[in-house]
Design brief:
By secondary structure, this protein is α/β, with parallel strands linked by helices. It has one domain (about 5-135): 3-Layer(aba) Sandwich (Rossmann fold), CATH 3.40.50. The chain has five helices and five strands; from the N terminus they run E-H-E-H-E-H-E-H-E-H. The protein has helices at about 15-30, 40-50, 70-75, 95-105, 115-135, and strands spanning about 5-10, 30-40, 55-60, 85-90, 110. The protein has a five-stranded parallel beta sheet, with helices on both faces. Strand 1 (about 5-10), helix 1 and strand 2 form a beta-alpha-beta unit. It is globular, with a radius of gyration of 15 Å. The two termini are about 25 Å apart.
């Protein structure tokens, strides 16, 4: 049933208040080993490329300095080494065309940030509940070539 191991999560979020609320809420809901945070897309991408082990989950804002969330997502999903990392967008952007575009790029899920902190906390709590019942890929596993389908 869901997540048994401790998760390593990367949060790419430039808003300090949102980042603290997301971190605090996720820690209450999930078995989290580490939450790493980067404040811009370039730093987030660099972290992912250098991380060992790779993050189990990436929470990504769209409106970021230096490289936006779309750029981060495009870079990750075009590289086989990172395609299996689940990426969930957490953004105030509610434009359906932009949401569709994120799914087209390969995002795992999309959460629209509400204006109020309490509402955001409830959405992150819902994310935590979702993550507690799904199985995420093991980012350290490399034996896919042994799999016969």
């Amino acid at each position: 049933m869901g997540i048994k191991k401790q998760l390593n999560v990367l949060l790419v979020e430039d808003d300090e208040g949102h980042a603290l609320l997301i971190e605090e809420t996720l820690r209450k809901c999930l078995n989290i080993q580490n939450i790493y945070r980067e404040k811009d897309g370039e730093a987030g991408l660099l972290f992912i490329h250098k991380a060992n082990p790779k993050p189990d989950l990436i929470l990504l804002d769209i409106k970021l300095p230096k490289l936006d969330g779309y750029g981060v997502l495009k870079n990750l999903k075009k590289d086989e080494k990172y395609q299996s990392i689940p990426v969930i967008i957490i953004s105030s952007t509610s434009n359906q065309t932009e949401i569709n575009y994120c799914y087209q790029l390969g995002v795992t899920g999309y959460i629209i940030k509400p204006i109020g902190y309490e509402e955001l906390k409830q959405k992150i709590k819902g994310l935590g509940e979702y993550l507690s019942v799904v199985s995420l890929p093991d980012q350290g596993y490399t034996g896919y070539e042994d799999l016969t389908l």
